[in-house]
Amino acid sequence: MGRGGQPKDRTNGPERKCIATGEVRPKHGLIRFAIGPEGQVVPDILEKLPGRGIWVSSTRQALETAVKKGLFSRGAKQSVTVRDGLVEQVEAMLARRVVELLSLARKGGQAVAGYEKVKDWLAKEEAEVLIQASDGSARGKTKLSTPYGGSWIGWITADELGQAFGRETSIHAALAAGGLCERVVEEAARLKGLRVTDGERPRRKGS
């Protein structure tokens, strides 16, 4: 698993072409869209909706370009409707997906939250991924280090992380290897493209 919340290289996996950039990339780095029965563009985060998929790189810039330049109509080869706030809708859906996966990992004993529990997992080398809330105290977060050879996720809010662990808020969490770990990292990497621009701090939800 890569550092910085990036999934392992899977260059031999299925690839799709982004309608905004023209690049052909592994599909885990893109978002699938489908066209609804009334011609509306529908985000298909789980990639299960019927019909021909339209793929866009999971970055805010690519999605905004696709919307502004009418590229969904070109990709669908028909006139389509793009609802206002599509980019924000995709961001919310990806965040919800990450929260759901973390919740499942917690229930399976694969994830813990809270400074002391996370510190213990790191000390015992049980943690593969360190997750820290984007709006948590910077000083507090520096006391914990990313597992060697593991990943760090730092663009989920304290509220979102709290939802995953059945509490009001949470700043620190850790995820063990195996099970849902790779899926969490992949979905979090897609979310990162909507919230983090190179050289900038993560966007706060709703900003």
Describe the structure.
It is a single chain. By secondary structure, the protein is an alpha+beta fold. It has helices at residues 60-68, 71-76, 86-107, 115-123, 138-141, 158-164, 181-195, and strands at residues 15-17, 24-26, 30-35, 41-43, 54-57, 111-113, 129-133, 151-156, 172-175. A four-stranded mixed sheet has the order 6-9-7-8, with helices on both faces. A three-stranded antiparallel sheet has the order 4-3-5. A hairpin with a 6-residue loop joins β1 and β2.
Kindly summarize this structure in a few lines.
By secondary structure, the protein is of the alpha+beta class.
The end-to-end span amounts to: 30 Å
What does the radius of gyration come to? 18 Å
Percent range for β-strand residues: 15-25%
Average predicted confidence as pLDDT: 91
The low-confidence runs, each spanning 5 or more residues with pLDDT under 50, are 1-8
- Listing every helix as H and every strand as E from the N terminus to the C terminus, the arrangement reads EEEEEHHHEHEHEHEH
- Tally of helical runs: 7
Q: Structural class from helices and strands?
A: alpha+beta
The major β-sheet equals: 4 strands, mixed
- The level of helicity is 25-40%
- How many strand segments? 9
Give the overall shape, derived from the CA principal axes: elongated
Instruction: State the strand order across the main sheet.
Output: 6-9-7-8
